[in-house]
Amino acid sequence: MENVLRPLLVLGSSVLLTLAIGWATDRLLRKADDRQRDTPLWGQLRRARIPYQLVLCAALLRGSYDQAGLLQGHQAGIGRTLTLVLIGSAAWLVIRIAAAVVETTYSRYARVHRDAARVRRVRTQVELIMRVVSAVVIVVAIASMLLTFPEMRAAGASLLASAGILGIVAGVAAQSTLANMFAGLQIAFGDMVRIGDTVVVDGEWGTVEEITLTFLTVRTWDERRITMPVSYFTSNPFENWSRGTPQMTGIVYWHLDHGAPIEAMREKLRDILRQCPAWDGRAYGLQVTDTSPNTIQVRALVTAKDSDDIWTVRVTVREKMITWLSAEHPYALPRVNTSDAVLPPTRVPSPDGAALRNAYEFPRTGRG
């Protein structure tokens, strides 16, 4: 009976104690979250309750398993397994706690500062820092797991002795990877590009959706994703429409007839912009910027608060102006000059019928 009750008592008490401590901790975090609604820290820490309970359970079982007297011939293997579970769950808990602290810090910063560009910059830095912390914790956890095996501890001296050579070989082999990692850190803290920025890369217009230590993802206007190495942004020019102030000036072109009513178009442009919610009211203008034998080039300048609104203003002005010209001033639209085809020379008899002469019929030109 003792051989049955002892394992049940030891294992059962460890599990029950883990559940009780986990429940009590969760209640305390929930009450703290209800009292302090202005900070998400306590709510974020509640997401770590599973790795927290795993750490407690693995630690209690690791410390009390010898007293259970269960599977005496496999105590070494079971003890090492519990140690591995303890190390892994501890690493998971550390990552969750670090994520909770980092997310809380970013949330407070975003509430205090109204500058969207600065908030996006901090968001980019926070995410990269979190990835670095997670990578370091995982590497340390894996190394700690490997060192629990005697064979790995015995090989530690030889590994340390050859660390210099291995480092050189790894540096040469992973040169591009290391370059991307350093480029990612440069982007994060050099404020070159941030999550949420509107960029033009290789002729593609889109928004930066994700930045890691090695690659960057741009979401285009048609919902495509372009993934590029971060080293591209440190070695090639690109357009960042969100750097500095997000306000933008847009251009709309028309090719019209020489008789187009320019003054009436200026008044119509003003009326169109006043009815367009995306226009920020800063400025507008309309000028003739070029001419050709058949048409003139008319340019309108409009402003908006960001890149999304400037697109809306441009397409609205272009569409409504063309509609107005077609309905009120159709002569202002470009026309094509045409003429009759040139006929070949014909043989026409002379009035007396004795001789023939060449006659040419010249075409009439018209405008249609």
Weakly predicted, low-confidence segments: 168-175, 353-368
* Termini separation: 112 Å
What is the 3D shape? elongated
Q: How would you write the strand order of the largest sheet?
A: 4-3-2-1-5
Would you kindly provide a written description of the structure presented here, covering whatever features stand out?
The protein has 368 residues and is of the alpha+beta class. The protein has twelve helices and ten strands. Helix 3 (49-68) runs antiparallel to helix 4 and helix 4 packs antiparallel against helix 5 (116-147). The radius of gyration is 38 Å and the shape is elongated. Residues 168-175 and 353-368 have low confidence and may be disordered.
Write a short abstract of this structure.
By secondary structure, this protein is an alpha+beta fold. Helices cover 57% and strands 17% of the residues.
How are the SSEs placed, and which strands pair?
Elements: H1 2-35, H2 41-46, H3 49-68, H4 75-112, H5 116-147, H6 150-154, H7 156-161, H8 163-173, H9 175-190, E1 198-201, E2 204-211, E3 215-220, E4 225-229, H10 231-235, E5 239-240, E6 248-256, H11 262-274, E7 279-291, E8 296-304, H12 307-328, E9 346-349, E10 356-359
Antiparallel strand pairs: 1-2, 1-5, 2-3, 3-4, 6-8, 7-8, 9-10
Helix pairs in contact: 1-3, 3-4, 4-5, 5-9, 11-12
